[in-house]
Amino acid sequence: MPPSAGAGQPERPQALSRRGALSAALALGLLGAAASAADDPLPVTEVAPGIFVFHGAHEEATAANLGAIANLGFVVGGAAVAVIDTGGSAAEGRRLLAAVRRQTTLPVRYAIDTHFHPDHVLGNAAFAGPDTTIVGHANLPRGLDARADTYLDGLRGALGDTAAGTTIVEPTLLVRDRLSLDLGGRTLELKAWPPAHTDADLTVLDGSTGTLFAGDLVFLQRVPAIDGSLRGWLDVIAGLRREAGIRQVVPGHGPASAPWPDALGDEERYLRLILDETRAALAAGRSLDQAVATVGRSERGRWLLFDDYNDRNVATAYTELEWE
C-alpha cells in the first residue's frame, strides 16, 4: 500500500482525484439539502383562529436562513387570504406561499407590506401576479426605490445563489390613511402612520380576533432600529395605545403574539431613554462620537443584537434632535 501524503510531500494524483470527487459530492449534497429546505413550507403557528404567523430568527440575513429574520403572517377569510409581509427573499416568499397552501386553497388576494425594509418585502416576488394585489403605505414605493440597489446587492452578498429570483416588486394599492380589506366575512383594517420606525409604517388589524400586525412599530427581544423619526415613533406608540379593538400584537420581531398593550413597554422605555440621553448629550456639548459611545448603554443586557444597532440609533437620534 503506497504511503499517504504527509507534510512536505506532494499529494498523489489519485489522492487529489478522490478528494475532488469527495468535495464535489459534499457540495452537491449541501446544495441539494439547501434546495430541499428552500422548498419546505415555513413553520407557522396559529395564534388566533385563521391567523398564522412565522417567527423570524434573531439573526442577520444569511444563506442558511434565506433572509427569514422577520415575523410574517397570513389571515384566512371566508373567500380569500391576505399575507402580511412576504419575507427577506423570493425563496422565503415561496416557502411562505407553501405554508399558506398547506392551510387553504383559497386565493391570496392581498400581500401587505408593513414597511419597506428588505426582510419584510423582498418576498413580494413570490406573490406577484394578476390575482394578488400588493398593498403598502403611500410612501413605500419612494422609500423602496431609493434603497432598491442597496437591498438587492446586500442580499446577493449575504445569500449568494439562494438570492436568485429576488426582485423589487412595489405595491400598487397605496394607503394614505385607513383602508378596509374584505376577505369574505372577515375584515382587515389597515392604517398608515406618520414617520416612526420608517416613514412608511402600516399596521393591519384583524377585527374578528383583535390581532394587530404591527410590523416593526413593535420590537420584542431584538433591539428596535430607528430609520425614521425617534420623536415620531414615541408619538406613534401613544397613538397605538389609543387604538380600539386590539387584544394581541404580532410584532415585526419577537414572540409571535404578545398581550396588548404590555408589548409596548420595553420598546417605549428604550426609545425614551435614547431620547432623554441624546438630548442631555447635546445640552452638554458632546460630539456625535461621544454620544454614540455613551447613550443607551444601560440597555445593553436587555436586547438581542444591541451592538449591531444601538450606535446607529444614537447617531440617527443625534441628527434629528440637534436642530430642536
Textual characterization of the structure:
The chain has 324 residues and is an alpha/beta fold. Helix content is 37%, strand content 19%. It has 8 helices and 13 strands. Helix 2 (90-103) links the parallel strand 4 (81-84) and strand 5 (108-112). Helix 7 crosses helix 8. The radius of gyration is 23 Å and the shape is globular.
Summarize the structure.
By secondary structure, the chain is α/β, with parallel strands linked by helices. It contains eight helices and 13 strands.
List descriptors:
324 residues, alpha/beta, 7-stranded mixed sheet, 6-stranded mixed sheet, 13 strands
- Report strand order across the widest sheet: 1-2-3-4-5-6-7
Task: Count up the helices.
Answer: 8
* N-to-C series of helices and strands: HEEEEHEHEHEEEEEHEEHHH
Terminal Cα span: 81 Å
**Overall average residue pLDDT:** 90
How many beta strands in the DSSP annotation?
13
How would you describe the shape? globular
Largest sheet: 7 strands, mixed
Report Rg. 23 Å
The helix-and-strand class reads alpha/beta
What percentage of amino acids are in beta strands? 15-25%
Helix content: 25-40%
Uncertain spans, ≥5 residues at pLDDT below 50?
1-36
